[in-house]
Amino acid sequence: MFGIYSIGAGSVEVLGIAFASLDNTLSISAGTLTLAYWDELNGPSTILLSAAMGASDVSLSVATAVSASAGDLLQIDAEVMIIQAAVTSATTVSVNRATHGTTAAAHAASTGVYLLEKKIFILPFAQDFFGSPASGSYAFPITIPDVRIAAGELFMTNSKGNSSVAAESFTDTTDFGLRSLLGGQLTIQIEGPLAIQTNAAPPLVVDTSCSVRDVSAVVQDAPTGAPVTMQVTQNGSVYCELTIATGATVSNIVDGFALGPLQAQAIIGLNITSVVETSNTEPGSDLTVTIRL
């Protein structure tokens, strides 16, 4: 068995490697890890279920024709499935349900279907590593930015050959996977009382394409007359909307996965779309909008 932990800044760690039996583990020289993931720079999947899928169904129907090979993995909500037979420009796909330790569940029509990519990594081990004190604190870093990892498979190689394969899923999270992201943040600030304004702050330019963890806003002084509403824009189009309620200093938090990535060289702006200042009320002041990457 093994675990994957997201350490941020575009990296994850492989750790917690353990065995049901320590027989033949002293001669292990390497591990072969395969990660199945969705590239978040593609944005949310545009492949949607065309009909609801029951927990016992062994095929699914999609609104957009897909091509895939037998053995490829796909993800719907928190469930990982294996494609049973190759398809070419097909709208019906036969699948093996509830793989990698996930649970078969019903899925509503128009739910996103994620055809997962795979990448292989080799984990080297010194002779007699397993069984030594160092093996208890083992952690191997892997750089794989801006992906959502759904599942992993690991087998070991020793002097006798290859072991059986351990398969794990990482979809039992609010994000339906482990997001490696890129790290860092973009910040837009406005000093003083707020007012309705387009391009309320100098625009920011994104250096490289990147996925977004979340977007939120905070003010130093809460609005008392009415909520503050605002739009974060990308190249002039609305990327997300935020609201700071009356009497509050913190806005709602918008999850970045559904928003899609920020594009390289995109211009990020901020519009204040609604504030109210009347007698004995305040519109809110000293605004900071944070886009975490």
Question: Can you lay out the helices and strands and say which pair or pack?
Answer:
Elements (H helix, E strand, L loop, with lengths): L2 E6 L2 E5 L14 E10 L19 E10 L4 E4 L2 E5 L3 E10 L17 E2 L1 E8 L14 E5 L3 E12 L2 E2 L3 E4 L8 E2 L5 E9 L10 E2 L8 E8 L6 E7 L2 E8 L9 E2 L11 E8 L10 E8 L1
Antiparallel strand pairs: 1-2, 2-10, 3-9, 3-11, 4-7, 5-6, 5-8, 6-7, 11-12, 11-13, 11-14, 15-22, 16-21, 17-20, 17-22, 18-19, 18-21
Describe this structure in words.
This protein is an all-beta fold and 293 residues long. It folds into two domains: 3-179, no CATH class; 185-292, Jelly Rolls (Sandwich). It is 0% helix and 47% strand. It contains no helices and 22 strands. It has strands at residues 3-8, 11-15, 30-39, 59-68, 73-76, 79-83, 87-96, 114-115, 117-124, 139-143, 147-158, 161-162, 166-169, 178-179, 185-193, 204-205, 214-221, 228-234, 237-244, 254-255, 267-274, 285-292. The strands form five sheets. Strands 3, 9, 11, 12, 13 and 14 form a six-stranded antiparallel sheet that branches. The protein has a five-stranded antiparallel sheet with strand order 4-7-6-5-8, with no helix packed on it. It has a four-stranded antiparallel sheet with strand order 15-22-17-20, with no helix packed on it. β1 (3-8) and β2 (11-15) form a beta hairpin. The relative contact order is 0.19. The mean pLDDT is 95.
